[in-house]
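U., I forgot to send this yesterday:
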Amino acid sequence: MLNVKVKQMSEDNITVISLEGAMDSVSGNTITNIVGGEIAAGKKYFIIEMTKVNFINSMSILDLWHTKDRVRFCSGILKICGVNQKLFTTLSGIGLTGLLEFETTLEDAVNAIRKK
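Result:
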């Protein structure tokens, strides 16, 4: 089961989506739907924090990809941070690490968005 927390960093207008648990077929389009709502509200800067994610399946990988497209379409920025080594290896093996922007920590992701 995937637990999701959404936090707005008002000083930078960054939406942080913190995930915990398994990103599986049950979680479906959770991230895309959250980001879509935030984009409709005028938000453009997003961080997906995955420190506590212990599993990801192909459906959730597709969800990340769709999220990237939505953010790109609104000329926004999407950073993913806190991915453990096992998940990073999985994402790297399918070439996703070359297509999405990863940062080590939440602080690194915030600073990367601030620089743009």
